[in-house]
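debug: dumping io for the single-chain case to check the tokenizer round-trip. Nothing else runs in this session.
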Amino acid sequence: MRVRTAMSKPARSVAPLDTLVHARELMLWGKIRHLVVISGGELVGLLSERDIAEHQARRGESIFSSPGDTVSMAMEEHVETIGPDEELAVAARRMAGRKIGCLPVLLDGEVIGMLTTTDILAAAASRDIIARSRRSPLVKDAMSTNPKTIHQSDSLLDAVARMQQYQIRHLPVVSSQGQVRGMISDLDLRTAFGNPRDALEQLSTANELLKVRDWMSSPAVTVSPGELCVVAARLFATSSISALPVVDLDERLVGILSYVDVLRALADYAEQAA
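debug: decoded output
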């Protein structure tokens, strides 16, 4: 299966001097997370939802409080691209290995589309990139075991510290019996604090009063270890989540599965089946 078959087209774009407020509105209207940045007909950068969040964290205020801030102030200038006739499995392998969420698709130097992790996962869920057979990868084969967790009554600053310490972006929220009650992500923390690292450096009674239960996503979307990765791919493709708690029949946490894990499993399977 080729990139051109799965990519989104046309790619939504902004110019370097467009405002971040305008860019964020385009993302919200289009229900997308990435925009290519075009100047003089050429690709000069990439702007993601995370880039805007990080810019706000650096500024210490919302982009709506600084309406003059431009795309050039937040965009990523070094952009990886791919051609439309590359195999989708190759794209999946590259995105999984480098933990990137999208690849602009270029033909003769012109952006003709955008390939996102959602596009790949949607293709996996609806087409034959992964056949439904005994050899298809299962969630238990791709997931990470013994994930770090947090309790809903813990301070939100505890979640910040744990993510910083282990360099992770998601924490399943569990009960004392290990049952999953929700999920909290680094984007949730950026919404609460701006720059989470600054929040740790500027401890206050007010911050200590913020609890995980007030900011977590609940109920969490979960998956079982015996499920096919193609089913997890469908969950990722149809939602805005990027990690799934893996639970047993009693809803107890046994692992965590990220979209990167699924991309890697799909790429491995495609290579073995070729």
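debug: round-trip ok. The first strand starts at residue 13 and ends at 14.
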